[in-house]
């Protein structure tokens, strides 16, 4: 194969970063490079970084330090750092100053400029550090090399206007900008024509989609349009903000064909005092009422959340309010975080930063409470049959298949561990290529807090 060389991209952080990496892969492929999973083999090595918590930044800095040796062995290798962490100008400056083996740094706002910057490094042999201070408009038609042929991320909004007081995102991703409905629709139609079965609409605050373009109820309008696209079996979205999740949206999801019954709705904290200091724009009571409404309209919905402990000034009583909401709402799952001070955000300047030991104790308590609830909810699935979109086989055991329910629960099953004798005899139907990317019925036989097992019930439900 005629290749200019190999590239390797390591991604830290959220789905938005994963999506950006797909664009970087697309651009590198267009330039004639091929992907490799080996850092040693790579001629171009990129780290797409995250800035949401300090830990993620420490990981990247440690990694950068370790790459010095590789660069000494392979001086022509281009090492680049991009993403949220280096969108902070002070961090880009620090890397330029302290790590001379780094050739290229660019931010989130000039990702589309990567080929140009890369050529400067390769052709002129100089170090290039270029971080744009503010966001540009939306650049459509960038190439993308997606990692799956079944599920795709589709960005609907960039940036965030919320300025939650702990969060770095509005500073590193800029103001909220929505893509045009027509552009999103075109992308989803194209994915459907290529055989993709699921799309996840991405944005920091998807349910405020269109506000910047003067649309009212823009997200519901968008979902209505996408719900009509044949071939796409499932539509997911993340992340939503409780303040923008209106009744019209809930009603539409309950009636829609393809929008899945899973809502990820970060609560962050259960204490009204803390929610106010976080600038979240809702109270504990309002949040709980919203969940009640969602459950009224969509009876089998699964609800997941993000929760943070140790926000500045969080007292034992505040933390107990968080535990109380967790017990009352009974989330299917919760992503739990220890508050991390982010330079430049209002919360970093607040007094009463919580002691690290107290934060650790609180997160342990929170995790164990949630684990118990997740276990109880998952156990209720036992003996019931669910529609699973098969995504592939398990990393450790290729005879185990993995997929998700519409409610976003990961289910593992062995095709030969079926209740259906005819199916067991029909090797053809169990052909892995036939299962992956298709909908099947799986009956749940075992459920733990994080893992669920089942047995295949019958042949394929749909797709091709
Ligand atoms: N410290 C800890 N967690 C944070 N998150 C955002 N900013 C911080 C921070 N400074 C969490 C929030 C958000 C999730 C993606 O990361 O819970 O929903
Ligand atoms: Fe950060 Fe809040 Fe925006 Fe989410 S909604 S990205 S937590 S500022």
Structural write-up:
The protein is α/β, with parallel strands linked by helices and 464 residues long. It folds into 4 domains: 5-130, Rossmann fold, CATH 3.40.50.12160; 148-260, 2-Layer Sandwich (Transcription Regulator spoIIAA), CATH 3.30.750; 264-380, Transcription Regulator spoIIAA (2-Layer Sandwich); 385-456, Beta Barrel (OB fold (Dihydrolipoamide Acetyltransferase, E2P)). Helix content is 36%, strand content 22%. It contains 15 helices and 19 strands. A 6-stranded parallel β-sheet has the order 2-1-3-4-5-6, sandwiched between helices. A 5-stranded mixed β-barrel has the order 15-16-17-19-18. Helix 8 (218-226) packs parallel to helix 9 (247-255) and helix 12 (316-329) runs parallel beside helix 13. The longest helix is centred in the last third of the chain and has 24 residues, at 356-379. The two termini are 31 Å apart. The chain binds 5'-deoxyadenosine (5AD) and iron/sulfur cluster (SF4). Iron/sulfur cluster is lined by residues 160, 162-164, 167, 169-170, 204-205, 241.
Q: What key phrases describe this protein's structure?
A:
single chain; alpha/beta; Rossmann fold; Transcription Regulator spoIIAA; 4 domains; 15 helices; 19 strands; binds 5'-deoxyadenosine; binds iron/sulfur cluster
Specify the structural class.
Answer: alpha/beta
CATH architecture of the largest domain: 3-Layer(aba) Sandwich
Which ligands does the model contain, each kind named once?
5'-deoxyadenosine, iron/sulfur cluster
Rounded to an integer, what's the Rg over CA atoms?
Answer: 23 Å
Uncertain runs? none
DSSP, total strands: 19
Q: Mind summarizing the main beta sheet?
A: 6 strands, parallel
Q: Quote the average pLDDT.
A: 94
Bin the strand percentage: 15-25%
**Count of DSSP-assigned helices:** 15
**What is the terminal-to-terminal distance?**
31 Å
Strand order of the largest sheet: 2-1-3-4-5-6
């Amino acid at each position: 194969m005629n290749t200019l060389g190999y590239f390797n991209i390591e991604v830290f952080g959220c789905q938005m970063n994963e999506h950006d990496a797909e664009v970087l892969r697309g651009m590198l492929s267009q330039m004639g490079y091929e992907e490799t999973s080996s850092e040693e083999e790579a001629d171009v090595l990129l780290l797409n970084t995250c800035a949401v918590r300090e830990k993620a930044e420490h990981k990247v800095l440690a990694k950068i330090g370790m790459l010095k040796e590789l660069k000494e062995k392979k001086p022509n290798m281009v090492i680049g750092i991009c993403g949220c962490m280096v969108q902070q100008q002070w961090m880009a400056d620090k890397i330029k100053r302290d790590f001379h083996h780094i050739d290229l740094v660019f931010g989130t706002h000039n990702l589309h400029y990567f080929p140009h910057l890369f050529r400067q490094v390769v052709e002129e042999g100089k170090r290039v550090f270029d971080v744009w201070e503010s966001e540009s408009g939306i650049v459509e038609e960038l190439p993308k090399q997606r990692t799956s042929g079944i599920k795709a991320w589709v960005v609907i909004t960039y940036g965030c206007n919320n300025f939650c007081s702990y969060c770095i995102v509005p500073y590193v991703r800029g103001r909220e900008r929505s893509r045009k409905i027509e552009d999103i629709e075109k992308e989803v139609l194209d994915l459907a024509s290529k055989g993709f079965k699921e799309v996840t609409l991405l944005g920091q605050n998807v349910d405020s989609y269109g506000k910047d373009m003067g649309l009212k109820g823009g997200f519901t309008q968008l979902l209505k349009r996408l719900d009509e696209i044949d071939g796409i079996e499932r539509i997911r979205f993340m992340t939503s903000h409780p303040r923008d999740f209106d009744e019209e949206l809930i009603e539409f999801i309950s009636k829609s064909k393809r929008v899945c019954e899973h809502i990820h709705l970060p609560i962050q904290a259960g204490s009204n005092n803390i929610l106010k200091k976080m600038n979240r724009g809702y109270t504990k009571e309002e949040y709980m009422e919203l969940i009640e409404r969602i459950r009224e309209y969509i009876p089998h919905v699964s609800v997941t959340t993000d929760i943070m402990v140790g926000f500045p000034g969080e007292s034992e009583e505040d933390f107990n309010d968080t535990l109380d909401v967790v017990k009352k709402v009974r989330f299917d799952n919760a992503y739990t975080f220890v508050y991390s001070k982010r330079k430049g955000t209002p919360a970093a300047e607040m007094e009463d930063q919580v002691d690290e030991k107290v934060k650790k104790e609180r997160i342990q308590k929170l995790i164990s409470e949630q684990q118990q609830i997740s276990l109880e909810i998952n156990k209720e699935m036992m003996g019931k049959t669910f529609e699973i979109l098969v995504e592939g086989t398990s990393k450790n055991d290729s005879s185990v298949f993995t997929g998700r329910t519409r409610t976003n629960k990961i289910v593992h099953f062995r095709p030969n561990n079926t209740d259906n004798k005819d199916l067991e005899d029909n090797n053809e139907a169990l052909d892995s290529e036939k299962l992956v990317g298709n909908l099947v019925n799986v009956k749940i036989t075992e459920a733990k807090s994080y893992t669920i097992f089942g047995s295949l019930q019958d042949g394929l439900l749909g797709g091709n």
